Amino acid sequence: MMVVHGLEQSQYILHLHGQQQTISTLVASVGVYVEAPGTRRAQGVDVLDLRVEKDFDLEKYGIFGVYVDAFDVMGFNRVFITQDVGRTCSPTAEGTNEPAKFTAGGTYKQITGVEGTRLFKFSLRYSF
After folding, report:
1. pTM score, two decimals?
2. How far is 24 from 82, CA to CA, in rounded Å?
């Protein structure tokens, strides 16, 4: 997209709603929800990356380009935490929407990773 004075601007936008997470268990080899579907959701994702660029025509000497990139402008970040409840799960009552009671495993809520870095990049390019 042309902005002004020959500057080009482009962007990448991503929005993802948090994925549904539901606790279930096996009863006599049949999967059974311990909680109502949709009780828990993962974190949503909003990412915006921008680029502004300008090319200068040096006629018989080639083209000189200047580029500025900004990644993760909105500052999205996420911490990955083990959500596998493990051990035992049981509903509070039949047909209830209340969260299940559970005895957590040893790795439940353990941090396994972190992502999200705001990054700015300045580039020069000479083409002939």
Report:
1. 0.58
2. 16
